[in-house]
What does this fold into?
Amino acid sequence: MNARRDVIRKMMSGLIGGSMMGSLGCTKQSDQKVSEPIAAPVNKNWRQDPQWYQTRYGDWGGPGVSSKPGPMDEILLKDYAPRSLVVAQETFIAKAKYPVIDSHVHVLAKTPEEIEEWVRTKDEVGIAKSVVLTGATGERFEELAALYAQYSDRFILFCGIDKTGIGQPDYTDRAVAELVRCHEMGARGVGEVSDKGYGITGDEGLSPEERLHPDDIRLDAFWEKCGELRIPVNLHVADHPSCWTPLDVYQERSPDYQHFNKFDKNVPSHEELIAKRNRTLDKHPDTIFVACHLGNQGHDLNWLSGDMDRYPNLYLDTSARDYELGRTPRASYRFLNKYKDRVVFGTDQGRLKSMYQMHWRLYQSADEYFVGRVGWRYYGLELPDATLSALYKNTARQVLGI
It folds into this structure.
């Protein structure tokens, strides 16, 4: 397993598996420039590349047949949507087994009518409450608090963090004061606070020295105030690790996600960003941080388990990482059972009824090889009742203090 982890780290550093230099690798990730999109070599016969062959077929030695040209040679990857011929159990679950707290949604309804429509959907599928990560401060948070007030029993609002004037001497005091003000207006947490490499402002124009990462001393008083107020922080650090690998024939995720790519950009590596998050956890042990998207470590649950054991104030949400759980069902089953008191359910995928119901199929059924996102197939986890109830509602209640 450590050898596999080393290979992935080399891929993310551009040391192997690149496209600009054929089978020998890509240009190494640069700290100096922002690169143009990476294109695969034109007209290369990849079947003659030993590394490509091994990556595609593993130790099976090939497809087991003599490949020949045909119409499928002209199909683009972005258009490829194979229909499985596997005949397997298909379970439809209309409503969750327990009332659910969805701990990761955004402002998906902007009028009273849209909120009412959303509530009807929630009733149908079993969502009791939704945590709306507004990311808002100032007048915008006031507007949202007023908009959702009619359904305060169904929606819990988080505020954002003031991102203005981060280089000014009074920044920390202003950020803390606005947090207190939003809390007095009903904010029950902070988030989603995102740092995908450019700091929490997301400003690509800032130099590395100017960026505001979670472990920056300018945020220490803010995180401490969150702990004092006993409100959690939804923190998004880094992104899926494939974002740090080239957009070439070895890219794991489908072209739908290529606009998130950070390879060869002037940002810290995936591991460096996780280290910044961990320093934040270490400095503020009395503050609960909910690392969304399985902490962007769902691809390596042993690594994530180590961090969970090391930092008791680290919690997770499952939002937008159904594909990590669904493709590694046995490891995911063990992980969710072990950490059921520190993982909360989240979607972050809109408010379509069928989307919720697909989550119930993932967590409650034993179905195999069913359609997922990213072009990957899923396997149902069939979680036991104790884990399911913790994931769906009990842990979120603990985190939110409700």
